[in-house]
Amino acid sequence: MKPRNTLLSVLFVTSALSTQVFAQNFDVVILNGRVMDPETGFDQVANVGINNGWITKITGETIEGAETIDATGHVVAPGFIDLEQHGLSPFGIKLNLRDGVTTQMDFEVGALNISEWYAERENNTQANFGTVVGQEFARMRVHDGLALDGPNVSMPYFFDYRIDAAEDGVDGWSVTRSTLDQMNEITATLDEGLREGALGVGSTIGYAREGITTYEMFEAQKIAAKYGRLTAAHHRFHPSASTPIETATGANELLTNAMVLGASLQLHHTNDYGWWEIEEKMQLARAQGHNVWSTWYPWTAGSGNYGASILAPDNWEDSMGYKYEETIFDPQLDRYVTKEEFLEFKDSEPGRTAIAFSPPREQWIKDWIKVPNFVVSGDGMPGLNEKGERLDWDSPFEDYAGHPRSAGSHAILLRLARENDVPLMFSLSQLSYWAAKQLGDAGIQAMDVRGRMQEGMIADITIFDPENVTENATYSKGKNGLPSTGIPYVLVHGTIVVSDSKVLKGVNPGEAIRYPVEEVGRFEPSNKEQWLRTFTIDTGGARPTLYDDILDDQSSLELPQSSEPVDYRVAKVDLTKAEPQDWFAQPNAMDDSELFLCRVHGVYEDKVTAQQDWAQALIARNSQASPYDPLSVTGTTGN
User: Fold this and answer.
1) Which residue has the higher pLDDT, 139 or 542?
2) At 204, is the secondary structure helix, strand, or coil?
3) What are the Cα distances from residue 14, in Å, to 2, 24, 63, 65, 361?
4) Among positive and negative, which fits the CA dihedral 432, 437, 440, 442?
5) Euclidean distance between CA atoms 593 and 338, whole angstroms
6) What's the mean per-residue pLDDT of the chain?
7) Entry pTM
8) Angle at alpha carbon of residue 455, lines to 371 and 496, rounded to 5°
């Protein structure tokens, strides 16, 4: 029998070896940081152990690992999540990593050829990545005839495609209203992207407000809803302060569709006139169980291109009341432009970057940093220099010429929150948790394990100095792309990508955020017969149109005799110029899906003659029976 002290010595050595093995059982450890979890409210100085890309230990005990980060005096937070990053080139990704963004996705412009898009980036990207299928690209195929092949039909090549679309002098994707067949073709393209794993449907309807009909937009949201996926959109009237096209009107359209479909919705950059109304409705809708939310970025100016309709004089001057020489800044010229210069660039270089200031944001920003579920997304633009050339990974940050939101949208929020006494945990929710939570609720399972600092979560982690973190990018030339400081370490899936404030080249742990590919799509073409079968009763096949005989006899233009005024229209219509309306689509298209519920419009081979005859008969009839102008009828009961 061994002496007692010998046995204790053996037990001590065994225990020490066991402890040592346990202590070194981590790939990475983060020591002495203030660990903050927005979901649970956990906020303590602790040590974090990471294995195989996952957080496996959060403890006050001593731990060791193969790599060690000393986070003393720093916050250890969930990696920031950005849902509107358009600069997803190696340069743009690097710039966003310096701003603490571990998941960088484009939910606005999106992409086509989804399987190819993901394959191109797999094992080759520094941050987590994902995309929606883009409605604008689908419309470019149909209305501009662009092939749009390959893995890069997405940002940052987006403006090149817009230039190609405009070569014939018409931005078909923006201004052309779809016939029924065209609408079905567009929706089928969206369906194919969803089948291949896209996270939802992305829409730039705000740049195509004259081209995309309300029903086409409804169809886009409907196909996303068939997959249980979200729609994300820059809504139709953003920004506008004029009735009846106020900003909130565009939000209402999308919000109504989402609520009746029981679908998730994200509205992009709700940071202009009417934001308060939209956010009130968002909060009320969430309280009723709807998964809807908005994003914003903390800058006093927005960014787009000279060809954008929202910057045209009828909106920028007439609606918003702004002056070009006070609000439109050109980063390549490093100064504001006159109206004449603006119009010249609009015609000659419609894809050129313009920075548009919105003076009221100076005050609004201080409100936005306090709005629950208001998610921060940078809306970062492609990495270009002052000549419009693309920057690569090795390009100096000073060469970037564009909106500074590409570089500092997350650090600036942390600075603003610090200066305005906003609780840090609230800001972390705006930067990570609420995006992850809402995307998870939309069915994206990969986001259920992100946006949190908890054991069992993926180790996407941003470490920052809460007292000194700040943006450095400004609107001045040479400073547009200066990286944020005070964020010395960033981990993506447990791999250190930013170390001592330097992005490590060639380290590509970014994971694809997507749905599995499905074998069969879910698209069903819309048509009149399908609509009737679904939404009307069966009366033996009778067409619910007053003038069936007109279909067979185009010369029959007699109107029913009545002593009462004939109310046919909802709004004023010049019938001498109007053409038969496609049921789902535009007035100048004709197929077998006419607006059969409207007594004014029929189907004729000779559209112009028949419509003129019809209009004359209608005017004559109403002139006899009505004391008021028949072309300004309101309050109709049947259109």
Assistant:
1) 139
2) coil
3) 16, 15, 18, 20, 64
4) negative
5) 47
6) 84
7) 0.80
8) 85
